Amino acid sequence: MSCVDVARKERHHNMTLVPSWQFTSDEVIGYIAGGGEHGVQIATTADGKPGTRSKCMNLEHYYSRSCKDGFFVPRYKAKTHAENISEDAVRVQVEPYENWRIHATIDFRITPGPIIEVRYEFLFQAAFGGFEAFISNYFHAPVEPFLHVMTRRSIMLRSCRTLPGQG
Fold it and tell me: Helix, strand, coil shares of the chain as percentages rounded to 5?
């Protein structure tokens, strides 16, 4: 993966640089973006068309029955950090914010196959009854979680769940 800086406009026409890493695999070109609008984008497939919109596999929002606010979209308020942790992986961290005492870590890894593996880990600093996290899936058309890029090969976007106490 190679690092690419991507400028994005915010609501007040301010410019913010967001860390982004480009990857290539066979005839696929894509990006893993950090920041609040983190996630994967398959920009070009073998047929020259985009495979996904941006923010695919983004940690979109939290929900909890026990939290006063009930619903929280981290990218609007929580601080995020992104770093390249290895030759084939990017880590995005979302800090806790006010009543939402949750630290989220998202690891995006490009593996052979080609497969993009995403691991979500939540460190709870308070009790949350009925906690749910919504992960976006911004494919252009409704499909299985496989994005076909050539006649005999495909990219698979796969999420892996880590339970407390595991790796």
Answer: 0, 55, 45
Specify the number of domains making up the chain.
Answer: 1
Pairing between strand 71-72 and 115-124?
unpaired
Global pTM reads: 0.74
In a domain, residue 65? The reply is yes
For residue 166, is it within any domain? no
* Domain encompassing residue 156: 2-161
Tokens, residue 105: 């870590």
Q: Distances from the Cα of 68 to the Cαs of 71, 81, 92, 129, in angstroms?
A: 9, 26, 26, 11
Structure token digits, residue 67: 């939290």
* pLDDT block averages, 10 residues each, the chain of length 167: 39 67 82 88 80 85 82 86 92 92 92 80 89 80 51 42 40
- Counting beta carbons within 10 angstroms of the beta carbon of residue 143, is it exposed (0 to 12), middle (13 to 18) or buried (19 or more)? exposed
Are the beta carbons of 82 and 38 closer than 8 angstroms?
A: yes
Torsion sign (Cα): 158, 159, 165, 167: positive
Angle at 55 between CA 13 and CA 46, to 5 degrees: 115
